[in-house]
Amino acid sequence: MKTSFSIFLLVLLAAFLGCAANLQRPSIQEQPLAPGDRLRVSYSNGVSKRFVGNLVALRADTLFLKNHTVPLASSVTKVEVSRGSAGTALGGLVGLGLIGFLGGAFIGGIIADATDDCADLDCLPVDFSGLFLGGFVGGILGAGVGIANSGERWEELPDVKYVLNQRSEESAQGSENLNVEKLSGRMEKEVEKNGSTALTLGIMLSAVAGLVAILIF
Question: Average of pLDDT values for 107-136?
Fold first, then answer.
């Protein structure tokens, strides 16, 4: 009974932190590429390289980024588009770390109170130890989730090499009006997958923290 109750409360904390991390991430809507988009292009031409820049144009077999020119046909391995910033690492550390500390302390106190065999004032040391341990575990968990979800968010465009190679075989007529409709459906799936990353990470970290807390309690 004691173990099941502890697991239930810790999973509840993990779900709460995962949802908080997802709320911290701005919503991403499917949209085509357009001149001015910030891209991160990985390519290999004997040596693996990666450039970050704003999209200028796509003409024939060459991708033009601001300050960079990347030959497409045989070298591009990955293209990612920036979807903005999810905040700084310090912001994630403090924000979700504090949420995790408060939530963990609350849950730790409940677990300690529900599992001790003492009464009245004799329980205070046990209850405070539960508050401290729960807050410590929850704070580390929240800080980890916050840091993992900070910084610039990059969304990979699947199968982009095939699409760009097809593009390089077409005429350059109208190439400045970028046509990447073939990517649209796949982009949406990538967004859905990225949106669940925070919750998955929170649950995985919580499983480890839960084992520690259960052994102690």
Answer: 53
Section 84-110 average pLDDT: 54
Report which of 95, 191, 102 is spatially closest to residue 146, judged by C-alpha positions: 95
Task: Assess contact for 160 and 78: CB atoms under 8 A.
Answer: yes
The structural domains of the chain, with segments of one domain joined by +, span 2-216
What is the C-alpha to C-alpha distance for residues 98 and 90, in angstroms, rounded to an integer?
A: 12
DSSP letter at 1 equals -
| Token representation of residue 205 | 């970290």
Encoded tokens for 192: 């859905």
Q: Is the torsion defined by CA of 32, 37, 43, 48 positive or negative?
A: negative
pTM: 0.39
Return the percent helix, strand and coil in the chain, to nearest 5.
55, 20, 25
* Nearest by Cα to 217 from 12, 6, 9, 8: 6
Rg value, the chain, Cα: 24
d(CA 157, CA 10): 36
Question: And the tokens for 80?
Answer: 């990612």
DSSP state of 26: P
3-state secondary structure of 107: helix
Q: Chain-centre distance of CA 43, in angstroms?
A: 24
Structure tokens at 203: 């649950």
